[in-house]
Amino acid sequence: MLFTSIVALVSFVSLVAFVLRFLRRNSIRNIRGPHVSSRLLGFEYDIGRQDEAGGLETKWAREYGPTWRVTGSFGSDVLMTADPKALQHIYHKSAYNYAKQTAQNHMGYIMSGPNIVWAQGQVHQRHRKLMNPAFSTAQLRSFLPLFQSVTYKVVDKWKSDLSSKKDMDLFVNQWLSRAALDIIGAAAFDYDYKALDDADESALAKAYHGILKDINFRLPEVEILFRAAWDYLPFPILKLFAYTPTKTFNRVRYVRNLYNAYGRKILREKSADVDAEKRSHGKDILSILIRANDSSDEKTKLTEDEILAQMYTLTLAGHETTASTVSFLLYELAKHPEYQDRMRREVMEARGRVAARGDAGFTAEDLDGMTLCLNAIKETLRLHPVVTHLPRVATKDDVIPLAFPIATASGEAIHEVPVAKGQVIDTSMLVYNRLPQVWGADADTWNPDRFSRLDDHKQTYVGVFANLILAFPRLTTIAYLNLYRTAAGTRACLGWRFSLIEMQVFVAEFVGAFQFSLPDGAADEIQCAPAGNIMVPIVRGKPDLGTALRLRVSLVN
Ligand code: HEM
After folding, report:
1. Among candidates 363, 309, 383, which has minimal Cα distance to 147?
2. Whole-angstrom Cα distance, residue 130 to residue 118?
3. CA torsion angle for 462, 463, 464, 468 (degrees, to 10)?
4. How far does residue 378's CA lie from ligand 1's centre (Å)?
5. Domain range annotation of the chain
6. Which of 162, 206, 164, 155 lies closest to 181, judged by CA?
7. HEC string of 228-250?
8. Quick one: which H or E segment has residue 537?
9. Is 493 marked as a binding-site residue?
C-alpha cells in the first residue's frame, strides 16, 4: 500500500515533468517505428517479456532499418539504433555528450554507491584515471597463474566426479560463476570468497548468485513505472529509494549491507600501515588503486565510499558476465560438435608444444595463438552479448550520423538524425551484432569461422574486441569485436582484457579435458532470457532456479 502510494505520487510528478519536456520539442517524430503493447509502460515492457532476448528488436530492425523510433515509458519517444556509425558517434566521438539514463543508471548507485559504472562526466574521468593503472595489459597478464589455478580446481573436481561414471549433467554456468567469483575476489582484493570450496558456506557467494537477474527479470508493471519515473526526479529524492520496501530492493539492501561489512574490513586491512611491506608490493587491483589514490592530489582522490563502491562493482561486473558468456560458448559447442573437435585439436597441439618446452601450463602467447578458441569467444560475444542494450541521453542538441540510411514516414531517405537535448537513445548491441549488413547473411547463426574472413579494420569501429563490445574495445561490439568496442571509447568495459584472458583459460582447459553435449530435453529447456538490459541463461518455465544452463559433460578420451 505504502509502495503503491509512493509510485502514484512519483508517477504524477514525473508525468507533469514529462509533459512539459514533451511540449518543448521533438526532433524524431518523422522516424518510423513499431507499436508497443502499452504506451504507459513503453517498449522495455515488451522486450522484457519476450522469451528469447533480442527477438523483437531484431524484427524491428529488419522492418525499419537499423535505426527506428519506439515508445518509451509514459509515452515518450525513444530513438533506438544499432547503426555502426551512430554507435561510434555516441560511444567514441561524443561520449561525454551522451550521458547514462537515470532510470537505468541509478540502480547501480543503490546497489553499490558512487562507483565508476554509475559516475558521469568529470566524476567518471576521475574514477577512470585512478582505476586505469590496475587494468594495464602487463598487470592483467600477471593474473594468468591465478586464473589457471582456479580453473584447475573445477577441472580436478569434475574429473574426480567422472571417475565413477560415463557422464554427468551439470549447471555449468553455476560452476563458472563460482570460479569467476573466486578469481575476481583474489585478483581484485586478494580475498578468498571460497565459492568453489563450498558455495553454501560462503554467505557472500550465496548472496551474489543471480542477483543481476533477480533485480531485473520480469519486473511487475508498477515497478517498471516506478523506475521509469526516476528520470524526472532530483538526486536527493532518488537516494531515498534505496529504502523502497519491495522484494527487489530488500534483496539489494541485504547484499549491500553484507558486502559493506566484508568490504570495509578488507579496505581497512589494505589501507593500514601495519603491513607496509605487503601494501607496497600488493599486486591485487585494490592495492594498486590505493597506491594510485595515495599519490594523487586531494581534489582527485577517491573517497573511502568510492573505493568501497568500486570493489563491489568490480565483483558484480566481473563475474556473472564472464561466466554467462563462457556458458553460452559451451552451449554452442554442445550444438556444434565438429567445431568442438577442431578446437580440441588446437588445444592438444598447443599442449604438445608446452610439454616440449618443459612448461607446466599455457602462457598468454600460447592462448593468443589458439585462433579457433579465440574466434569461438568472439562469436559468442557477438551472438550472445550479455549486455544487450544500453540507453543514453543527449546532453545537448546534436546530429547523429548513420552508416545505413533509413526511410522516414514521408518516404525521404536520411543519412543522419538530428536529436534535441534530453533525447533518449537506446543503443542495441544485440541488434548491431546481428546486422546482416555488417556480419553477413548468416548473422543469426553461430559460426566462429566468420572471424577468419572478416576484416574488422574495414568495419566502422564500434568496440574494442573484434569490434564487438561496445564494452570490449575493438574485437567487437563494436563492443568485444566491434561490440566490446562500442561501449568502448571513454566508457569501454574496463575489465575487457581481464575477462578475455579469463575466458581463454576457461575455454582451453575445459575443452582440453571435457566433451560437452546437450542432455535429453535441454534443447527446449535452455532459454537466453532478457533481464533488464542483460541476457541470462535460465531453465524455461523455471526462473526460480536462478541463472541455470544444463549441459552433459564427459571426459575426453
Ligand atoms: C564477458 C564479460 C563482460 C562483458 C560482456 C562486459 C560488458 C560491459 C559493458 C557493456 C560495459 C559498459 C556499461 C555502460 O556503459 O553502461 C562495461 C563496463 C565496465 N565493465 Fe565490463 N563486461 C565484462 C567483464 C568485465 C570484468 C571481468 C570486469 C572487471 C574485472 C568489468 C568491469 C567493468 C567496469 C569497471 C566497467 C565500467 C567502465 C566505465 O564506465 O568506465 N567488466 N562492461
Report:
1. 363
2. 15
3. -120
4. 16
5. 2-555
6. 206
7. HHHHHCCHHHHHHHHHCCCHHHH
8. strand 534-539
9. yes
Given the CA of residue 477, which atom of ligand 1 is nearest to it?
10
The letter for the amino acid at 471 is A
Residue of minimum CA distance from atom 37 in ligand 1: 117
Of 383, 493, 497, 536, which is best to mutate to test ligand 1, by the most ligand atoms within 8 angstroms of its C-beta?
Answer: 493
Helix-then-strand count for the chain, H and E: 26, 13
Grid coordinates given for 216: 531485473
The rounded distance, in Å, linking the Cα atoms of 293 and 309 is 15
Nearest CA to ligand 1 atom 9: 471
Q: Strand 424-428 and strand 77-81: pairing?
A: parallel
Grid coordinates representing 10?
Answer: 512519483
Q: For the chain, report the end-to-end CA distance as a whole number of angstroms.
A: 61
Rounded to a whole number of angstroms, the CA Rg of the chain reads 23
Pocket lining: 487 vs ligand 1, CB cutoff 6 Å: yes
430-439: per-residue pLDDT in tens? 999 999 999 9
Report the alpha-carbon distance of residue 170 to residue 184 in Å, rounded.
23
Contact in structure between 47 and 57 (CB atoms under 8 Å): yes
pLDDT for the residue numbered 280: 60
Residue 83 banded pLDDT, cuts 50, 70, 90:
very high
Closest residue by Cα to residue 351 from 333, 334, 363: 363
| 551 exposure class (CB count in 10 Å sphere: 0-12, 13-18, 19+) | buried
Question: Is ligand 1 within 6 A of the CB of residue 327?
Answer: no
What is the sign of the dihedral through the CA atoms of 88, 92, 98 and 103?
A: positive
The Cα 94–Cα 72 span in angstroms is 23
Residue 308 and residue 105: Cα distance in Å, rounded? 18
Cα of 322 vs centre of ligand 1, distance in Å, is 10
Distances (CA, A) of 465 to 271, 315, 346, 486, 497: 35, 21, 21, 9, 9
109-164 tens-digit pLDDT: 999 999 999 999 999 999 999 999 899 888 898 999 999 999 999 999 999 999 99
CA 442 to chain centre: 24
Answer yes or no: CATH 1.10.630.10 is held by domain 2-555: yes
Angle between the 304-335 and 371-383 helix axes, to the nearest 10 degrees?
A: 110
| pLDDT score at 224 | 94
CA–centroid distance, residue 325 to ligand 1 (Å):
13
Element (H, E) at 394: strand 389-394
In this predicted model, what pLDDT tens digit does every residue of 466-498 receive, in sequence order?
555 444 444 343 333 344 433 445 788 899 999
Task: Report yes or no: 474 and 489 within 8 Å, Cβ to Cβ.
Answer: no
Q: Which atom of ligand 1 is nearest to the CA of 324?
A: 1
Strand 526-531 to strand 534-539: parallel, antiparallel, or no bridges (unpaired)?
Answer: antiparallel
Residue nearest to atom 41 of ligand 1 (CA): 491
